[in-house]
Structures are given as structure tokens and as C-alpha cells.
Fold this protein.
Amino acid sequence: MGRRWGSAMRAAELTGCVVSASRAGQPEAGSWSCSGVVLSRSPGLVLCHGGIFTPFLRAGSGALTADGAAFLPGNSCTDDLRLHVLWSPTAASSSGRAERGRPGLCTPQC
Amino acid sequence: AGLEPGPLTRPRGPPLQPPRPAELLLLLSCPAFRAHFASLFGGEAAELWRFAGAAPDDEVSEDEEEDQLRALGWFALLRVRPGQEDEAKDRGPAVAVAPLGAVSKGAPLLACGSPFGAFCPDIFLNTLSRGVLSNAAGPLLLTDARCLPGTEGGGVFAVRPAGALVALVAAPLCWKVREWVGLSLLCAAAPLIQAARVVLSSLPSDAATLAALLPPEEGAPWGLPLNDPVPQGAASAVLVECGTVWGSGVAVTPRLVVTCRHVAPREGARVLVWSTTPKSAQIWGHVVFATQETSPYDIAVVSLEKELDGVPRPVPAENFHEGEAVSVVGFGVFGQTCGPSVTSGILSAVVQVDDTPVMLQTTCAVHGGSSGGPLFSTYSGDLLGIVASNTRDNNTGATYPHLNFSVPITVLQPALQCYSQTGDLGRLRELDNAPDPVRVVWRLQRPLPEAPRSKL
């Protein structure tokens, strides 16, 4: 993409991540996931979208639109919330081999 | 879908490290974002808009949709458990943040997200998409970079300030009156991180120490300014209101505005023209010319009662290059409330009859309200054409914003010049008698007796 985009691409590669939320002990309930930004790697600090937390809010999603609500502490979610963050290593290289995707999403020949 | 154990060897780089456990520190929102969201998309407009990870026809329960809407402007700050191999060199903020307003409309942006979230991270993690800042209302930003469900929360980065975090994706897809708009909704990062800094500092001590890790805002100057002529072009875009219909237009001279016939169809009708740059102005005018319904060219010309001050005169292009970078400026999406939006793409086709360009197609996102607006060359800033329509599949009702059609300015320029110099409409009237081959090219514009037209 050329030098013009170099810094932006580097920043994106360094800070991009995926966040997944699930319920402890209930793998069958599935999980919710979204993208995020690594604000600091060590110690690890990530900012991601709040939508994946609505199923875990103790007071339900109504807490998000309560008057004057600008933030909710971490314990606003139930104790069975489990979070995982996946980010790419800091050094990018082109090694590796291709793998086909999983069922549920396909890339039809067109 | 969740983080699947899946293959950790990665076709796009070194192997992924196993996912790390994390804890939720806080959920936060940007009050200014939510206020702008409410004013632009709330109230009466709420019915028109849909923001969701799924298309309007997908099965999403009302509760789910309501949850999604409530959470749209909320973000979460997480603390990630340290890994063994955390290296000293990784300490400290991983990115700088662009101050609010540092990126101008039309400036290039890079979005980075993982479509479908944790599904297939070896393929989808950190997928990039390029676009521009299409519009801004405070910290509520719009971009035409393609974002998909799962990229919510992904970062959007600037070319200038180089590599600075500008925003996070709030809603990747939005529909207006069931038409896909082709823009993604973003929340500016600076006010969000500032809100996090304030809240963290008020929490017990170990959380407060994290406040120091939050990335700083990039100080000015942000390197050489981009020589982007688009903002200049955007200044000649105006909003045209005729009765209850409104659309976009181009001030080709301080007293003459070109728009589409379906925006201002009746000669003699009074029209109100709004310009927003360099300052907000409203000037009355009247339609001096509108092509016939049977003409292939959907064009109208408005003469203003007084001059539009300070609006730069666009330079009409003389030739077109398929594949060149182009930008469309139009008042779709927000109408008068927020100034024109800019979308970017390439000139995907120049359709000719007898070696004369008679239709331009682009990949810019063009949506309802954009018709009549200007199509520019991104690099030269020259005016290429007048946007006439995007595309709709009358069988499915699906709209394709990224396939749209413009009238080349070379078709209009001689007639406009003649009229503005002599007041003679003769050359404009010739547009009603375009030869048949031209009609064939523009045939999709003609009303189908039983189905709605592909109009903006």
C-alpha cells in the first residue's frame, strides 16, 4: 500500500486484536466476540466494543441507557464472565501455510 | 462463534499466540458521541435507520436489536493477564491517539478489524480496509472503509498524523430506509480514552496506575499536510431543496447550481440552496432549466438570486481515466444537519458513444440524497461529473451504493458556459434531444412501468 500508509498499517498490525466473552462452565452457551485495540501490550490494556457484554450485565442492557450513565464498573457483569484476547505477534512475517475456513462461512466460487 | 482452538499456524504471519485471559475493568461510553447519535439518528429519524451486524431481513429478535442499539456507543476497557514472554520493549502505550478534529473530512483512513470476530482468526484477524473520513459530527464519525460484522471495536488509523488511532468501529453497517448506506459508524478514540483516563483515576490505586498507560494524544504538528484537494471540492457541493424534495448540487459559478432533474424538476420552481463551506449560507434561486423526463440526462440548472460568497469554482475536467481515484461529495445520510459527506473510490467505467463519454460509473458509496452532487478526481480536484443515481435490484430491493452513475461534466460544460455568459438556454435544451445510442446507455434510468426506478 505504499509508504503513505506504512505507519497506519504498522499501528494496525501492532494493536489489532479479537476479544471473546463466554460463560464459565457453559461452553454450550457459545460465546460473543468482537474486535479491539491494544492500548498497551505490557501490561496488557485493551479497548474493545461493549456490545459483547450486554448478555452479562447484571441489570440488563437497560443499564446502558440509564440517565447519566457514562461508565459502568467491571463488576456490573456477572461473575461467570470469561474474557480472552487474541492478538498477533509484534513481528509480522510471511511464513506459514494456508488453511481452509470452517463450515458456517464459505467463500463460494463466483 | 467463539475463539476456536483452530489452527495456530497462520497463513498471514508468524503463529498466533494462545488467547490470553483478561478481566473487565470498566464499560464506558462517550457522552458527546451518544448525544450526537441521538440528535442525528434518534427521534423521528430513528425509524429510518438501522445499525446492526445483520441485514434488515435477517432474523434478529427485537430484544437483541434493542440490546445492540443500546450498546452501540459503549466500549470496554480490559486488563489482559501478562504472558511469560512479555518483553520489556513492549512496555508503554502501543499507539498514539489523534486529537479530535485532527483528521479532516475526505482524509484517508485505515480500518483494522476481524470480520466475524473470533471465527477463523488465522484468516480474519486484523483485516485491513481503506477509506476516508466521510463525515463527522463531534466524536461521531463516518467512514467508507468497508467494515463487516465482528469488526466492532476495531481501530481506525490515520495517514496523518501518521499511524495515529482516530476512532473505533461502533457499527460496521448501517441502513437508511432499508437501503444499505455503505458507511460505517465510528466513535472517536480521543474523547473515549480521555473518559477512560478520568474514570480510571477515580478507581482504587492499582486501576489508577493503569491510567498512565493510556495512549497520549499526538501533539501537533502532524507532519506535512496531505495535499488533498477534496476538501476544496467539497466546498462547491451544496444542498438543494425544492418543496419537500432535497438532494445535492454543485455551484459551478457563484450564481449557478447544477443538480438533478428529479431533485428540481419544474422550470420556474423556487429552490433553496444551502452551502456549508466556507460558511453556512442559504440562498434562494429558481430552476431555469430541467431536462425533459424523456431525456437520458437527469439534469437541472438553478440560478441564484445572489452570489454564493467564497465558494471555490470547480475546474471542469476535460478527460477521464478509468481506474483513477475519485471522490463523491453529497448531502445524503445527514441532509442539512451535518454538512456533506465525502466518499472515495475509483472511476470504474467511462461509457462512450462515438468516442464521447456519456456516462461515468464509480465505486464510491452513493446513497439517497447524493444525487446532483459533484464527482471529483481525488488527485487533481477537477470536477468530473454530476451524480445521478446508484443501483437497485428491483427484484430483491437490494441497493448497491458502490455502483453508481454520473453525467460527465464534458456533456454539460459547453451548454453551462453558454448559458452563464449569454443567458441562452439553447445549448441546454439540446440535452433533451440526445441521440438514441445515448438513450440506450442511460435506459436503466427510465421508469419501469411497474417497478420503482433506480433513483436516489
